[in-house]
C-alpha cells in the first residue's frame, strides 16, 4: 500500500434521478447500483473544462483512486423511451432507459492535494454544469462535500456524515446493525478479494469512447453521525406514509 501523503475530495451525488451505466449499448441503457468511476471522473473533467478528446488531461484525473458510499440506494425505474425526429418527423428507435430514483451517494477521489484543490475549486465554479450520469439528471444540491488533506479514501468514506434524507434515516437507522455499503478501488498490492468493473476511463472522445477493467472491493461501514442535510420534500409533509 502507498505510504505517501494523499488528500481526498468528497462529493455529494443526490438528485431525483441518476443513471450510471457501465455497459449500456444501443437501445437498452442500464444503470449500475452506484456511481461509476467513469461517470464521476467525467463530472470532474467537465467542471474543469477538459475537452472530451483530451486523453492526456483525462489520464491525470483517471489516475485518482475512487470510492463511493451508498447512503440511500434509491429505486431502480425503467423509462420506455419513444421519440420523433424534430425536423423529418421520422420515428426514432424505441429505447429502454433505466434510472435510480431518489438515491444519495458520497463519492470520493484520492490523490495529489494540488490537483484535488483545483478540482474542488472547479466544482464550485464549473466550466460545464455537473450531471449525475446523464445530462437529463441534474444534482439536487451542491456537489462538493469538502477537501480532506493528508487523508485516505477509506477513512473519509467511513467518517463523512450520513447524507441520506431525513425520512430515510428515520426508517433505516439501526445503531447496532445498520451498515452502509462502500465500493472502493483496490490499492496496489492489496490482496483483498475484489470484483471487476469496466469503468476505468481511457478516452471520452465521441469518435471512440474507451474504458478498461478496474478492481472494486466491497466494504461495510456503520452510518456516521447524521448531518443537517436539507430535504426539500420535508416542506410538503411530515407523514412517512404519504
TrEMBL record:
Span of the signal peptide: 1-21
Highest taxon, organism lineage: Bacteria
Coiled-coil region: none
Protein name: Type I-E CRISPR-associated protein Cas5/CasD
Pfam family, one: Cas_Cas5d
InterPro entries listed in its UniProt record: CRISPR-assoc_prot_Cas5 (IPR021124), CRISPR-assoc_prot_Cas5_N (IPR013422), CRISPR-assoc_prot_CasD (IPR010147)
Compositionally biased intervals (Basic and acidic residues): 217-233
Presence of the UniProt keyword Zinc-finger in the record: no
Keyword field: Antiviral defense, Signal
GO biological process terms on file: defense response to virus; maintenance of CRISPR repeat elements
GO molecular function terms attached to this record: RNA binding
Region of interest: Disordered: 188-242
